[in-house]
Amino acid sequence: MRRSRLKRKASSVRATPLQPQVGGRFAPLTAEKLIDITNSAFAILEQIGVGGAPPDIRSLALENGAGERSNGRITFSRALVEDMIERACKRVELPGFLRERGIEVGGGRVHIGTGGAAVQVLEAATEIFRDSTLEDLYSLMRVVDACDNIHYSLRPVVARDMTDPFVLDINTAFAGLKATSKPIGTSFFEPANVAPVVGMLDAALGETSFAAQPFCFASVCHVVPPLTLAEEACGVMQECVRLGMPLQICSAAQAGATSPAALAGALAQGLAESLAGLVLVNMMKPGFPCILAFLAFVSDLRTGAMTGGSGEAAVANAAAAQLLLNLGLPSTVSAGMTDAKTADAQSGYEKGYTIALSAQAGADMINLSVGMLGSIMVASKEALVIDNDMCGAIMRTVRGVELLDGSIDLDMIEQVVTGEGHFLGTAQTLDLMTKEYLYPSLGDRQSVSDWLEAGALTVWDKAIARVSEIEALPAPTHLPGDIEAALRERLPIHLSERL
């Protein structure tokens, strides 16, 4: 009888999306290690500095108190860096195109999102890996729009059918704009492309200005590890500051290759590279909305290749989140970067522990965490919806155990143990079914016999069906048709109008 009762309940209860939760309970670094690594990062900036500064960035830095070594490397004293940390924006508001779908980044509020620049997609129907296209980019971000546990979408794939840099940048931003009303992120090939994209986003909002509702952030890799500034990216950064596009500035050193193999050393270098970017942004404009993407990549030392699904990557990114949370700075880390090529058991366990550790450590944004396969070289819509389920459960663990009024009710326990002998029908159980418990959309909780009777569907089978359901729904309509038509008339938009 109990099994049938539970089966009826399961069919009538929907998965409840969780709002962003505050992490930070997991601390992979002891207080002593936290201080040592942070001090080492300050020492790297003061003693070693950054190379490759373009002339205008060099002038900006020197005019604002930086030093210069005889070899041309720009150095930043600890006092200067601490002053810039004090000036920095501590909470970054990222509204959606529909403002209410926005997020607040900072303080350990955990958000799940896409990211990366995969160059292939896995076709579910054919199981073929092929080059990613503009339509794939749109389709992936449209799936994100329908996933309750994914809070933002930074472009997950490169539209490889767009060969001109300007056309690529315009269409990358447009695909995100059209696909979802959640906050989006884009990237730029060169500084000159920032203004046209911002102009497009501004026009898309109609009467509201992009400056008032900056629903798109720029992901900018300002540094080429180890400790070398990227000229084009620095120019992009300057343009974004000038035009009011929020920044997510990235350091993605790979331990054992472009940063020391010792994780502590890699973390010190990565923190230094992140802080160098923060210093420059706040020299350009104090308090400008800037999120530090401290992506602690790791090498498989047997081959030198990047491994995103390793235990080392999991703990390194959790530590990166802890380091930035300790400084009070908005953070992004990388997780979910499985090395598996399909959504198999390896994919599940690698994504599970890497994302869970970063979330529990209080990463404000977790890039690359959903939909990625093959060490972030491949994206999959079906993996995306599976990961949405997984991230809901992970966010539930971040929420933790709550002690609310009535949580511990001795009278209720007395009534149950002297009465029916179970808690299934109590008022508390019924009240908390959708408040304290989360239910998977794709994960299966049936008995083995019921699962067999229902067709023995795997989570991959269900994911294929779920993606088909999403794509059969009417396309998002937040971008008004007349505005879209005007944008298509004046810009080289290549995304098909039928989508």
TrEMBL record:
Which keywords does this Swiss-Prot/TrEMBL entry list?
A: Methyltransferase, Transferase
Q: Looking at the keywords, is 4Fe-4S present?
A: no
Q: Which GO terms describe its biological process?
A: methanogenesis; methylation
* Gene3D superfamilies associated with the record: Trimethylamine methyltransferase-like
- Which InterPro entries does this UniProt record tie to the protein? MttB-like_sf (IPR038601), MTTB_MeTrfase (IPR010426)
Reading the lineage from the top rank, the first entry is Bacteria
Pfam families found in the cross-reference section: MTTB
One MF annotation (Gene Ontology) recorded for this entry: methyltransferase activity
The name this protein goes by in its record = Trimethylamine:corrinoid methyltransferase
